[in-house]
Each structure stands twice: as structure tokens, then as C-alpha cells.
Description:
With 306 residues, this protein is of the alpha/beta class. 40% of the residues lie in helices and 13% in strands.
Amino acid sequence: MSFIRTVLGDVDPAELGSTLIHEHLLTSPPPYASQDDPDLEFGDQAGATSELEAYAAAGGGGLCELTTVDYGRDVSVAVAASRASGVHVVQATGMQKGIYYPAGTSRRDVDDLADEFVADIEKGIDGTGAKAGVIKVGTCSTEAVWDVEAKVIRAAARAAVRTGAPILTHTQAGHLGSEQLDLLLDEGLPADQVCLGHLDRNIGWEYLRGLVERGAWVGLDQWTKDKYGTDAARADMVRRLVDAGHTRITVSGDLGRGRYQPAYGGSPGFAACHAAIRTVLADNAIADLVLIENPARFLAFRGGNR
């Protein structure tokens, strides 16, 4: 039986509901990063609960919490906020990008890293019973994949092959999606088990079409962020891809700063982001595809272990 792994247990994909697939309930990168940009560190249990309760009231059913261990993950917050709000929260294992990796990562071998990710998925995160339901990996350059990032990406692929878990990636400003996919596929991972993130920051027809034609999912996850392009342009790309028969598309807001969430005095928050996606797409069938049907398909484990 197909299932999606949430912090409160496995659920049938049909139970997930409308889902924002690339979000953060809290973040805490290494001190040098937050010292230069204090807004990068935010979040607590009360705020996460408030955000998810508002999101649920606006029709939200699921959310992927993609804060990894190197970015300040605290699965206890995800568990408490999910339980209080009723929103299905899928928590990530993996690592964000090379500049944030814990000391010593470059000295670890690929299988050691893969074992860590598998343990988060199959046994639980940080000694808890809450299990990861997705693997997050990424790159921090727009020019080339760092050697240590290639190691972590390969480890993620091996963990995904072993468990059946899906992989969501961070690309820096939408670049290196092809290079990330090359590394993942080289480890024997099926392309449809991968969603390449932030591609609306480098939105272009030939680039996105090339990736979906290879079988990967396209993550357009910067909705409501005008500094990275307009929602109208994102909606146009969604419609163009769908019209061409390319339906492997996911959407979200990546609201990973306090200034994006009302609980911390920011805007728009998950509820308003979700509403904006539906409003700008202006087509219920396409909105249901990218917010309901596609997350249920993509997040379902591929023959993995319970």
C-alpha cells in the first residue's frame, strides 16, 4: 500500500489534502549566517502552531517542513504544531547546502551519510519516534556543485533507493538543476522520485522543459515573493507546462524567514500564500493538480520500508 510518512505517522496519500511542498516552520543556520542576516533565524512552537492553524482554517491539509539538521531542525516543533492544527507535516532529513554543513561532513563517506538519512526515515529523528518523510539536499553555488555537496547528494540518492523516500532539492537561485539530477540518477534513482526546487528563480521554458522531459518534478516554490519574479509569470509557466503535457509540477512559497510569517509580525503566511496560488492560477482544475494531486503522488513512498 502506498503511503506518505508524516511526523505523526504514515497516512494514505488521499488523506493529505491541499499541500505546500517546500516550507519552513523554523530555521537556525550557523551563527555566521544569522549574524549577517538575523531574519534567517526564526520560529518557535507557538508561532508554528499559529501558522498551521491559520493555514488549516484556509483549507490547507499538508505541509513539507524542509529544515534540515544543518539549518536548525527541531522535529518536536513540527510534531506539536501538527498535532494542534491537524495539518499533516512531512519532515525532512538530509542537509541543506555546503556552506551550512556540520564540521567533518567532508571526511564522512557516502554510505555513512546515507545510513544517517535512512535512520531518520525508518527509526526516527534525534531519538524521537517522529520519522522523516522526505530527503532534502542542495547546492550553494550557481556555478558548480561542490565536492562535499556531490557526496551528500549521492548519499541522499542511496537513502532514497533503499527506503523509497522522495527527494526535494534546494538550488541556488534555480541553477544547477541538471547537475543535481545527473548525480541522483547516477546512483540509480528514478527521476520521478526527485523534485528540483526553486526553479522559478531561473524560470525559462527550455530549462524547465528539459528537466521534466528527463522525468523529474519541477518545483515552482517562490510564490508571493515578487523579488524573485511575479506570480503571474509562475502561473503562465504552470499553464504552459500543463498544456504541453508536462504535469510534474509542485508549488509553494518557501516562507523561511520571520518576515514572511504573521506569527512573527510578517506576511503573507502559509494561509495567504495558499490562497494566492489558487487565485492567480484562476483555474480550479490546475490548482487542484499542483496543490492536491501532485503532492499526493510525489510524496508517496516508492515501495519503501514502513
